[in-house]
Amino acid sequence: MDIIIEDGQEESPDADVEELKEELEAIQVTAEPIIEPTIPNITKEDFSEYPESYKDNTNKEKLILAYVENYRRQYVHLFRDRKPLFLNPLNECGIEKFVCTTLRPTLLSYKALYHWQGCAEFVADYLTMKQLEPPQELPMCLFSPSTILKRQLGNCFDFSNILCSLLLGAGYDAYVVSGYATKEICLADESRQICPLLQPKKEVLKEAEKPEPRKYTVKPPRDLRSKFIIKMEARRKKEAEEEEKKKQQEEEERIAELEKPPPDALYGLRIHAWVLVRGGKREVPEDFFIEPFTGQSYPPSSPSFLGIESVWNSTNYWANMQNCASGCKDMSFDLMDTEKWEYMLAGSDQTQIEIPDAEEELYDLDDDEKENEDEKHLDMPATWVLPICVTKNQYEMRCPQGKKTTLYKKAKLEKYANYLLKDGLVTRLSVYDNNELTDLKRVQESFENREDKLTTRVHQGGLITEDFVEGRPRSLQQHVYKASNPGPEAERTMTFFHKKLRVDGLCKREETPTEMTEHFVNRDDFLFLRHVLFGKRQKKVAPATAEGPPRPILKITEKFHRNDALSASKDVEEQIFIIHEDKIQITYHREDPNITASTRDFYKPPNAEEKGGSLQWSNDMTNTFQVNPHGSPAKNLAIYENLLQLIQTEQKSIQAVRSSEEEVKEILMDRQKEELASELAISVYDTERNEKAKKHRKELERLAMEEKLRRQEMEMDYLAPFLAQIGNPDKISKTQAFKLKEDCLADLKQRLIDKANLIQLRFEKETSELHKRQQDYQQKQVAMTKEDEEQYFNYCSEAMFRIHILELRLNRHKQMAPHKYMQLEQKLRQDPRLSEQRFVKIII
Fold it and tell me: What is the pLDDT of residue 203?
């Protein structure tokens, strides 16, 4: 066909073809070199340590890989602009495995790993992070959890694989997520986050129980305040709070803007894997994410997670069909919604879709049920990985090399394994005032397994706070003192476990160089406070090593609770012993209608502290204020006896103060010795660390082995029964040795003859029985049926076989018996217990 040009000239089609070829040849395309996937260098020798499931695929696994390939092709056809799915990476041996079969739900026998917090913390601490290379590409390999736990090194997919396996074993509805995250999440950079130990704990506010309305109640007094004024005050208060909140929010936004990380060139492209825990199981109220590198939980609306490509667990695989333009904030995790998630295996429990109600489908219900019964789906193959096993030593070691350091915003957290350090330190949290971590503000140390029951020690502002658990000799619970002056007679506060542990009911002691205050609870004498005021020591010339005199006591103040068994005018509320003035002040409890309390002052005579001395009474020694003027005044005898009792009480109070000072010194001395020793408590069940139990166990094993060997020697000793007949003597005489030899040979000879006779007896018995059956056959041959004849012939064949075997055994026994006899005789000659040379030496 010719083409007509506008000017009327014809142009040949061949010329157009040539021109088109020239134009196409001018277009040059340069292809980028293809990067071959890198497979880990695993030698053939390394394959031997893996089971057969690592080196090859079963028929069912090959079938599921065919399903995976079909699923991948459909996904690529529908979503050409999205990255490929993480479906069938290579394992340790370079074999393709489906990611769902790499999960192995496991529940380990450790209490902490039954909850998601313990599982996440263990995985984050036990493994060392390895970044994806390059960060925007999926990894080519996914090793089994057992291999990763053995190497303690893995990327985000390895972390998530192990964590999801532990969570599934613990009963959580957990999934591995393949998606995109920020640079800080992918690199486990927590330098802009607050340390979890410093975050305030969420307090659950309990609603106050409303009192039940009563029919007869006293009406509250009428409120005479102006409602307008109350309303205006509430408005001003609300405006002030809003203004303060606004300023605080602006300040937080300004600080957040300053601390904002620099822009990332790969934002939205960094591939990351984490774990999704859906609500419903294990009392989980709502969905949340777990970051495997740090073990922290995040809500799905967190801006740190930018998108999701797919999720999977041990039963199925789902591809995300939702738009991730706004991250995971508006994403639905209802995996049964086929418009948002595309599953791979239709037979999974998570993919059962409810049939919508429709009138036209009701008639076809029976047909659908029949089709569903006939329809079969491919289920997930069994996992190919070895069981996840974590020994007790591995679990207790937790971190690689037993220690790990994490940097947070203005904080640094150091973790150590149990028994790694001599002082039992397990965590050290250092808090700083700046982001550069140079201005130290506070140090908090946590301890475990200490003999002195110390749990935490906090250094802050020049003060040291030590907390203890129950079990110390003097029931010390907390000790706060100055780091610059840890000795006695300095500023300190001691708190004690007072419930059922201290007889004196002491719960708190506060001390300064000049004062000491003690608080009591649940005492029989109703004492709840004792305050002591000390004076300055007098300077005396004494040796440097000699202990100085105790601090002089100036005043002791004791306060008591109300004793309902006594009247208020006789129940003491406060008694003050002014020792340097020889004065005692007593204040009684106030009675209900009165606004003041009765008081009485005593002035001690000069000889009040002399033993056996008599006190001279005078009215000038007391001063009384009585609230009730109409009440009868106390008699002089009662006042005198009260004075004597108070003098004794004063001496007891002074002794109690001195005992408290001695107790403080003893506690400080014990703490000094404990810090120098730093002994750790080891359980009797810990056979690896408990040296005493270990030695005892080894000694028992040694004794058991010796007993076993002795019994074996006894069982193998051919002379043992003959030695027992003569009483197992330590030394054997020549006569006994000859007798033992003769008896042993005679016994063997008799046993050989008995065995031959037994074989001959059986031979004769079988021959006699056969002869009888033959005679019986000759007599009844004519009347026998075919079955009887067949039974007779079978018996004859078996009997002849047995007779032949017995004949062979007897002939062989006759041949071997002399050899056995000679062997025993040779053995007896060589036995050191019966050797002739032994008796020759003894005679010489």
Answer: 56
